[in-house]
């Protein structure tokens, strides 16, 4: 049995009178691709916002356990940058890149959480800083190459085609060397070719052993990628299982009847 990297229990989030998350349990194990699905407004993005420190959950626990350790790290109460340092990195439903920075610089920013006194060193240009900067650039380039973005390295991020911008967000998240990569609707707005390329890319990232938790509406993509699927509706978990189990689950089918599914 593989060890859980992420363990969330009883996660609850109230916005005024609205219970956006209702005692949710979810776990992701080492090397897995797990999908979190559900109709619009189910609470999926709120779940990401709660586990990444953007919102403080009303109740519940969030633990991260590095694969080579038995020590659980509680993420509750940490700020987003601290959560990233502990090993959770994410992309956003709506692209958030530094538009007027180059593609390479966008990835280098991701690296900085794994490096030392960058600002101080950048002012005084010590030998150690130059060495560190060189290593940041090399690592960032390697990530760009892996994600098929090396040709764009010196372009401004906002000059990239849409699909490439979405890949760049993944590149920046990967640059933080996450224990778990969180993707919020990575295929949103993509054309069919871009979605097929994304499917391949996520599988490639997973082959390196990267654990991934993915929110996605494109059911074909979800079924193709996932080891396990969690289904939410109205802030509650209504089902969990393998793609085959979820496809057949009457409760899931009912929850989706009210809305169009990209099948
Ligand atoms: N900051 C907020 N303030 C108030 N309500 C919110 C906030 N964020 C999300 N919600 C509400 O929580 C519910 C779940 O939203 P969301 O997590 O974005 O759903 P999903 O990502 O599954 O489409 C919705 O009813 C939404 O209006
Ligand atoms: Mg959402």
Shape summary: globular
> What strand order characterises the main sheet?
6-7-8-3-9-10
What is the N-to-C succession of helices and strands?
A: EEEHEEHEHHHHEHEHEEHH
Indicate the CATH class of the largest domain: Alpha Beta
Average pLDDT value?
A: 91
At CATH level 3, the topology of the largest domain is: Rossmann fold
Residue ranges: pLDDT <50 for 5 or more in a row?
Answer: none
Total separate domains: 2
Rg, Å, rounded? 19 Å
Overall CATH architecture of the largest domain: 3-Layer(aba) Sandwich
What is the topology?
Blueprint: E1 4-15, E2 18-29, E3 33-37, H1 44-51, E4 59-64, E5 73-74, H2 80-86, E6 88-90, H3 103-111, H4 118-124, H5 127-146, H6 162-174, E7 180-184, H7 192-207, E8 211-215, H8 219-225, E9 228-233, E10 236-241, H9 243-248, H10 250-257
Parallel strand pairs: 3-8, 3-9, 6-7, 7-8
Antiparallel strand pairs: 1-2, 1-4, 4-5, 9-10
Bound molecules: adenosine-5'-diphosphate and magnesium ion.
């Amino acid at each position: 049995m593989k060890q859980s990297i992420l363990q969330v229990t009883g996660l609850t989030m109230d916005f005024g009178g609205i219970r956006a998350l209702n005692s949710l349990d979810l776990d992701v194990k080492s090397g897995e691709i797990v999908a979190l699905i559900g109709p619009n407004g189910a609470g999926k993005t709120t779940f990401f916002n709660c586990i990444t420190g953007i919102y403080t959950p009303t109740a519940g626990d969030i633990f991260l356990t590095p694969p080579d350790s038995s020590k659980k790290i509680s993420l509750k109460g940490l700020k987003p940058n601290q959560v990233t340092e502990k090993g959770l990195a994410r992309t956003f439903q709506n692209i958030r890149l530094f538009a007027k920075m180059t593609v390479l610089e966008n990835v280098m920013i991701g690296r900085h959480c794994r490096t030392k006194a960058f600002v101080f060193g950048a002012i005084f240009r010590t030998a150690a800083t130059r060495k560190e900067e060189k290593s940041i650039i090399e690592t960032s380039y390697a990530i760009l190459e892996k994600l098929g973005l090396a040709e764009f390295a010196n372009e401004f991020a906002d000059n990239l085609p849409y699909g490439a911008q979405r890949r760049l967000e993944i590149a920046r998240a990967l640059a933080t060397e996450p224990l778990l990569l969180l993707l919020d609707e990575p295929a949103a707005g993509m054309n069919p070719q871009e979605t097929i390329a994304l499917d391949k890319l996520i599988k490639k990232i997973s082959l390196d052993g990267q654990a991934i938790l993915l929110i996605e509406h494109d059911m074909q993509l979800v079924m193709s990628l996932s080891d396990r699927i969690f289904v939410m509706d109205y802030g509650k978990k209504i089902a969990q299982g393998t793609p085959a189990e979820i496809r057949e689950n009457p409760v899931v089918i009912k929850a989706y009847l009210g809305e169009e599914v990209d099948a």
